[in-house]
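Q: Here's a chain of 195 amino acids. Please give me its 3D structure as tokens.
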Amino acid sequence: MTSATVTSLRFALPILLACTGCVGSGWLIAAEPEVRVNPFHDPFKQVTHGLRGCPAPTPPTYSQHDMHLAEHHRVEQGNSCFLAGRCRLSNSFLYDKGIASALFPRLAADRTLARSSVWALVQGRFVQFFGCVSRKDQIDHLEGVARQTPDVQAVLANVMVGIASKPPYLTASPSLGCGQSLRGKGKDPCRPTHE
């Protein structure tokens, strides 16, 4: 073997070893990052169903990197609420299941919202609404009901009147719903594990 061949092999060997996992699954560089749907099990649900054709919002989704950043933020936000004396529980995210169990059925039974299709997300005492209503006053009503719910700190309505406009939120792809994950199999990622 010539010295040129040895030198070529020395540089080629790490590349060949790195690519052994590439065969059959595409290049590693082109691999999509795994995306998880609602890994923190934040309450997320469609609470009204009366306006057909309303674009569904995307459920909370996180890449592995996003999850790492969110975990840090959730610990910091959750604990600072308790340390500042604004929360009786040790973390603001511990309120979410109770808020959802009080708010979601109330909205579903509310006749004022009969001609609406609205989804609700509760994260760290913060309620967000997505979807469509038939009248502007229904948005004010949604916000008012949420603000009257014990332990709710803030409310944001990303809701449009009618179904013809561009939604003020990210919409779900037809292949992704709360009952599915983007990759992998398992239980409904949008349902809290302690239900």
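Q: Can you summarize the key feature?
A: Residues 35-62+95-161 form one domain.
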